[in-house]
Fold:
Amino acid sequence: MTTTSGLQGFPRRHPVWMVTVLALLALAVLFVLFDWNWLRAPLERYISARTERVFRISDLDVSPGLTPTIRMRDVFFGNPGWSDEEAMARIEKLEFSVSLRDLPDKILVPRVALTRPDLVFERLKDDRKNWKLGDPTDTSPSKLRISTLSVDRGRLRYIDHGEPFQIEIQGSTFDPASQPKVKDADAPPSNSRYSTEYAFKGNYHGAAFSGTALTGEVLSFQESGVPFPVKGTLVAGTTRLEVEGTVADAADISAIDTRLRIEGQTLANLYPFLLLPLPASPPYQLQGHLILKGNRYTMDDLRGKIGSTDVTGEGAYVEKEPRPLLTARLHSKLLNMADLGPLIGIQTQASGGKPRLSQSETSSRPAAAAKDRAVDPNHILPAGSFDGSRLQKIDAEVTLDATKLIVPEALPLESLRASLRLYDAILELKPVEFGFAGGAIVSQVRLDAREPTIRSDVHVNLQRVRLDELMPKQKRIAQAAGFLGGTLQLKGTGNSIADAAAKADGRIVFTIANGRVSNLIDAASSLQGGKVLRLLVGGDREIDVNCGGVVFDVKQGRGASSLLVVDTEQTQILGGGGFDLARETFDITVAPKPKQPGILSLRTPVRVFGTFKQPDFALEKGPLVARAGGAIALAAAAPLAALVPLLETGPGLQTNCASVQRQVAPAARQAKTPRKRR
Structure:
């Protein structure tokens, strides 16, 4: 019974097991025989409806899993209605995976492989993007994230109407083993690191560029942090950039570790690409190690040349709000001062000489005149215009040390130390220190570029400059001694040094401390011929300078002397006059007054005048003609009597040096200030 009962129970349970087994078999057969193309038409209709764009494919296949892989052929995906381009994507073969674990927070695509793609990415000024998979008017951040990308024989175009920026890239993979072992300039190098070549061209802020790049077969694309190798060249006008190293995430770069080399005609041409207000410069060549971590770019092992000046150092660029920050510490063993000319608006032969006038620069008569003035060889004050708006886009802290200087016309400049600080469109050069004639020229410059017209405030101190370094060194002339001090304080408005000087207000003061000068030079300055002859025969010697001072008060670019005196043991020199910074002219008269009697004296005021570029001098004709006429008249009667008008009775008085020192007190302090040694 038990056996029979058991046998009888089997048939009652058998149908359930049979149905289950049959269902599993049916599912297995369905899975094996299922054609994913059955879902192709519904998928096309669904995506087209959700995106309001045309979507078509000719074949569909899926490998299931928590990260399924989808394969499509002959993909066509249309653009939104606001675009002039018909299709956003045309792809012969598309393969990608999707992480189901990250849905619905974001659409994470770990891998995308494209064969013969033709892609167009476009962004409008109002931040609408054609790659957003949803409402085309939605400007919220996209949820799509692509980690890695590989391309075979593809083309990509990116158009940013707001930046403005556009680029076209054509890329294709190649077999590194098939490349020639001998280097060929037109062929990718034989290197297992690189298996994809990209050629690109575009335009950024009106500046055209082009280049090539080699990478690995797969690029990290977005939010992966995975580095891929890259070696490339970019050319933009006269600027050439070469990089080799690794980059992470091509679409939104998250890390960089590359060697970089850049060269060009002027650093100012980098502004459209970096949006850094770099100064004009002579041709340059720089290289270094570029690293990006987080929002900080660093340039280590920076070295190269700007013009004939060598440069080494390091720098950093930090992306932050409200403005990025640039920091740099630069050093030069031998700095050519001519290379700094373009920085302050001087056109030099190294920077291309007289530039052509572009249409934008000569679109009006004042603009053309200003540009012509900037390259006028008859002017000394630099008239090259600064663009103050560039100083509003970045903050900066930069230092420069130069051990030795090459200077024009044998000026006694010895070294340079400068510190630049730019914050909130206010640029401070504090200090700019030149080693000069055994002393120093120490300047502080403040430029306020918060308004269209730059406001400038300049303080210059002449500290303990040695007179013997300024005087000619000849055996027959005794060497001068003592120290020269001075202060210059000027405030002005203008977008060039020349414009600011033409509107400047302030004061200029010079003085001498503990001074001694050549007796021969003192005699010559007094036009005492007899004394000059005696000194040439018997030898020169030093004489004391009791005091000396020069004060000019400046108003709207015009300086008028309120003090001009040099008092030595034997001569009192008084003078007066002024200058015009707008016209770059001056007119000063000095009157030497010997304190002792002498012979063969032609004592008469001397007028020094002309332009800063071409100074001239002349003797006052009235006193000179009177003395010469008297000498000629007396010579007719008695030859020895002709010497009477040339006798010097010595009317020069002792100068009130205490009064002079009070007027030149700031400059006197600078004359006694020892230079700080570094």
The chain has eleven helices and 31 strands. The CA atoms of residues 188 and 544 lie 77 Å apart. The first strand starts at residue 55 and ends at 56.
